[in-house]
C-alpha cells in the first residue's frame, strides 16, 4: 500500500458504500463463537470476475482435501527458520540451482559460515522468471504487462545511522552479526550505496482499498534488492521501505518517517515473538534528512526525521499482485498464470504433484484463516486490510496504523481513516479476510486456474479453517481440553461490558485454581488486577462465570501448575501496545535509541516473565489516548 497518500475522498467513500458490499458487523459472541463460516462473495461491481452464486457450493470431488494439506510433521519440516512455527506458515522454498551449498544444516551439522555483506548469495528468480517493465526510470506512470520495474533507491542521506537491528533475522541470511558494526552498514541499508549482487526493483500490484477497486498501486516506496538463498536453501527477499520514488509512487515522495518506521520494525519482530506468521525486519536506519508529513491530513504538515526499514520475507507477493493483471483483461491474463506457477514452484513446492492450482488456492485461504485466527487470539488489529496488504504466503504484512487491544472492544479500529464505517475493526477482521479471499479467487477463476465451484470451495475452506483455528486458540487460552462455546461467549461479553484489558486478563486467568471449594468472596482475587472498578451487579456476573469456569477446570483434570504453564505459553505477558511504541518514538526523535532496543528485546520473548521488565506490561497511561497514539492515520 502506498502510505503517505491521502485517504479516500468523501465521494469515494460514498461510492464504496454504494458499490461494494461491506463485510457484516457481528456481535462479538456471534462472530467469535459461531460454528458456521460467514459467507461473503465479491461485489458484482468489481472489475474482476465475480463468483457465480451467493452461497458456497459443495466442494468438487477433486478438491475434497482434509485440512491441513500436509500432515503436521511434513509441514513442520518445510518451515523456514524465522517464520512462526505454525501449520499455516510458509513452507520451505527451493534454493536456486546456482546457490552454493554452504554449510547445509542437519542433526550434528556444523553451523553455517557467517557471511559478510559482500558474500551474500543473491538470486533474482522473480526478475528472471517474470515479465518486467522495459523502462528503468522512476517517473510515476501506469506500468502495463509487467510484474515489476527495475528502479534504484534515490533517497538522500546525511550521515545515516543504524538505530536498531535483529540478530535473529541476520541468522536467517547467514549474515555475520559483526556486519552491523561496519561504519558503512547504514549506507548500504539506507540505499545510498548499492549492495554487491543486488538487483533492485519495485513490484506492480493493484487492490481494493476500503472495498473500492483502486487500480494500479504497487511498491510506491519499497524497493526489493533481490533474494538471498541461505545455507539451508531458504529464499529470503530483502526490501528497503522508504528509499525513494518508484513508478508506483503516484504523487507521493517514496520516503518514510522515523515514527512509522519504528512501529514497523518493532511490530514485525514482536509478531514473530508471538509466533504469528509475519514479514521480518533486519534493521532500522535513520537517514539524517527530514521528510514532510501531514499526520492527520488536516493541513498541518511538518518536518519529521526520515528512516528506512529493511524488511525480509520469503516473498512480498500479495493478493493484489494477481488482481492487477486480471483486471487488465485477456492481454495480461497469462501473467496471472505465470505468477501462480512461479509462487507454487518457489514457495509451495509440496503442491507440485497435486492438482496444484486448486490446492494452492485452498492453501492460501487456509493460511489466511490461520493468520487471522491468531490475530484474534492476541487482540491484534491490522487496521488496513486492503487486498494489496494481504500476503499470498499468509504473513502479516505492511504495518501501518495497527493496534493491539487494550480494553476489550470488538469495534476497536486503530486507523483514523477507518472510523466512519469501521470496516477493518477487530471484530470484522475474519469477515474481511473472507471478502479478500473472494477477491483473490476472482483472478484465478478468470485465468481458468480454478473453476467457479472450486473458487467457492476455497472460500468454504477459509471459513472452516478459521473456526477450527479460532476455537482451538480460545480453548488453549482458557486452559481447557475442549471448546465450550457458551463459556467463551459469556466471557467475551463480560470483557466487552466492563472494558477489561484483553492481554492482562488472560495472563491472570492462569492463576485461577481448579478448586470448587474456594469461598465466593475469594473467587475474583486472582483476577483483581484486571477487574478494576466493577460494581456489585457486574461482580456477581463475574463470580458466576468463574464458578462455571472452575467446573470446567475440574472436569479437565489438568493439574493447576501444568495448566498454568500451558496457558502462559499462549497468553502473552507483553504486547506491543501503541503507547509503548510512542514512548520509543519520542525518545528516538531526541536521538536516544535505547528504548527502541529495549522494547525490541522485551517483545522478542513476550511469553516469559522477564523480571525487571514489568513496566512494559502496564495498562496505558492517560496520555496514551490522545490522537496519534491510540489511533493513527496512514500517513507515514
Automatic annotation (TrEMBL):
Keyword Transferase recorded: yes
Any one GO cellular component localisation term in the record: chloroplast thylakoid
Record region (Disordered): 28-70, 82-107
Residue ranges that the Swiss-Prot or TrEMBL entry lists as coiled coil: none
Single annotated GO MF: AMPylase activity
Bias (Low complexity) ranges: 42-64, 82-102
UniProt KW Iron-sulfur keyword: no
Keywords: ATP-binding, Magnesium, Metal-binding, Nucleotide-binding, Nucleotidyltransferase, Transferase
Cofactor(s) this protein cannot do without: Mg(2+)
Family assignment from sequence similarity: Belongs to the SELO family.
Name listed for the protein in its UniProt record: Selenoprotein O
